[in-house]
Design a protein that fits this description.
This protein has 153 residues and is α+β, with helices and mostly antiparallel strands. The chain has one domain. Helices cover 56% and strands 14% of the residues. It has seven helices and two strands, in the order H-H-H-H-E-E-H-H-H. The protein has a two-stranded antiparallel ribbon. The longest helix is centred in the middle third of the chain and has 27 residues.
Length: 153
């Protein structure tokens, strides 16, 4: 018996392409669009092919680790070799230089808030005990306050 529906596009070529796209940081939605299937189809393939699903997770982790490393370098500052090309009176000069990028405070804050939230979160928990406002009033006083407010309204 033949299976109902269209034949699957899932094959080794598509699988390799998806793994490469995942390593580049594409979302499932974008990968599905590139191979011209619905995102749900991609999710179905993950369920039907557990080894593929595990490989896809590992490929996505490569992209995540690359971004994490870049964020770390921005937070701490970094250097890299580069060249400076100049032209003076028609003579081109190429000079090796070291480019320096200073630490970026925004990257530092982001890194620390996510890695050490107990120490670096913006909000501090405030504990409160006792009654405030109307809750501290006796019932008779509360009734009198309500009547007073109704008259003012």
């Amino acid at each position: 018996m033949k299976k109902a529906g269209q034949p699957t596009k899932y094959n080794e070529t598509v699988k390799r392409l998806l793994l490469l796209l995942a390593q580049e940081g594409l979302t499932d939605k974008k990968m599905a669009k590139i191979i011209d299937v619905k995102e749900q189809t991609l999710n179905n393939w993950k369920k039907a092919h557990p080894k593929f699903f595990e490989s896809l997770k590992k490929a996505k982790k490569v992209a995540d680790e690359s971004v994490e490393r870049s964020l770390y370098e921005r937070a701490c500052g970094y250097e890299h070799p580069d060249v400076h090309i100049s032209n003076y009176q028609g003579e081109v000069t190429i000079t090796d230089v070291i480019k320096h990028y200073p630490p970026d405070p925004t990257s530092m804050i982001f890194w620390l808030k996510n890695r050490q939230p107990d120490k670096w979160q913006d909000r501090k928990a405030v504990e409160h005990s006792g009654n405030i406002g109307l809750g501290a009033m006796k019932d008779s006083d509360l009734d009198a306050e309500i009547k007073r407010l109704e008259k003012e309204a």
